[in-house]
């Protein structure tokens, strides 16, 4: 992981390759190598390593989550959804999987996405990421009244003065204007996520089982 943090994926791959020569069933090494393959776009190789790990750790949330990334890279929405669902079956508190599964569901079944987000473990329910995703689901479901209430609630805790001003000017129109609600929700989304700049490797989850 230190090599990956330094963008030295080739060095990391060599270290892991040496470890796998000594023990071809080293699940941790296979998992780490699959991460490198995903980051570098070698999807077939990533799937091969993860399929092997799955034989050792069928109930590993991380394996199922990484497999969802394989299917995402291939544009395979059905299998991505299946792996995200399996991730949450194994580990309900795996928040990245819950947020991504909600995102997959919203375009075709916003109510199911809302139910999924409602099932978020209590200690995670008030996170900004969950609130933002829930707002997108409310918007897709056409529930503008509840959406307005949710955005008003987030307005109360918003840190950006500019964001507060923008929502305040327009929140009266949100209940009857889906287009405006969408624009405001997008701004709110940016306001939440701008607190942490994304890293290319953020597509990979933290190490968890």
Written description of the protein model:
The chain has 209 residues and is mainly α. It has 12 helices and no strands. Helix 11 runs antiparallel to helix 12.
Low-confidence region ranges: 1-6, 194-209
How many runs of DSSP E, i.e. beta strands? 0
Topology as a string of helices (H) and strands (E) = HHHHHHHHHHHH
Structural class: mainly alpha
Span between N and C termini? 17 Å
Helix count, per DSSP?
A: 12
What is the overall silhouette? Answer: elongated
Oligomer type: single chain
* Share of residues in strands: under 5%
The biggest beta sheet reads: none
Helix content: 55-70%
Please tell me the overall pLDDT: 77
In short:
The chain has 209 residues and is mainly alpha-helical. The chain has helices at 2-5, 9-22, 27-39, 43-56, 61-73, 77-90, 95-105, 110-118, 128-141, 144-157, 161-170, 178-193.
Key words describing this protein structure:
single chain; 0% strand; mainly alpha; 12 helices; disordered C terminus; 209 residues
Helix and strand topology:
Elements: H1 2-5, H2 9-22, H3 27-39, H4 43-56, H5 61-73, H6 77-90, H7 95-105, H8 110-118, H9 128-141, H10 144-157, H11 161-170, H12 178-193
């Amino acid at each position: 992981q230190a090599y990956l943090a330094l963008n030295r994926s080739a060095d990391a791959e060599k270290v892991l390759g040496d470890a796998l020569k000594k023990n071809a069933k080293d699940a941790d090494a296979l998992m780490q190598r699959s991460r490198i393959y995903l980051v570098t776009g070698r999807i077939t190789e990533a799937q091969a390593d993860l399929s092997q790990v799955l034989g050792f750790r069928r109930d590993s949330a991380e394996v199922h989550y990484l497999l969802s990334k394989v299917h995402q890279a291939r544009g395979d929405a059905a299998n991505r959804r299946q792996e995200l669902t399996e991730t949450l079956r194994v580990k309900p508190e795996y928040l990245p999987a819950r947020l991504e599964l909600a995102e997959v569901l919203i375009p075709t079944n916003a109510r199911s996405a809302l139910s999924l987000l409602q099932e978020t473990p209590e200690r995670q329910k008030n996170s900004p990421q969950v609130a933002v995703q829930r707002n997108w689901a409310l918007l897709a479901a056409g529930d503008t009244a509840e959406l307005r209430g949710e955005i008003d609630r987030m307005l109360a805790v918003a840190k950006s003065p500019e964001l507060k001003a923008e929502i305040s000017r327009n929140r009266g129109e949100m209940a009857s204007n889906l287009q405006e609600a969408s624009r405001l929700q997008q701004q709110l989304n940016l306001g939440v996520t701008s607190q942490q700049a994304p890293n290319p490797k953020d597509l990979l989850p933290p190490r968890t089982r």
